[in-house]
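Exam revision sheet. Question 4 asks you to relate a sequence to its structure. Input first:
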Amino acid sequence: MAPVIVVEFYGIARLRSGVASLRVTAETVRQALDAVQRLCPGLGCLLGEDGRIHSAYLISVNGRHFTAELSRSLESGDHLVILGADAGG
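Answer key, structure tokens:
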């Protein structure tokens, strides 16, 4: 069975998704993003035309580091954080 991942949204990603978070089953970052795009049509642009994470978004795994590696493995309970690349403080 595929791991259950919590996906959290911040900034423009939260506005476009319409939710603060959701749970998806996914073994990789790519599978998680594909599930998010199916569940949140407003985020259909997470992946660019080149198949990579769109430059407007940053993806963090468990809040420890950012990743652009779509094949990165995920484990049950992992948190995938999606935020706009222009987010600031």
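Marking note for examiners. The chain has a mean pLDDT of 91.
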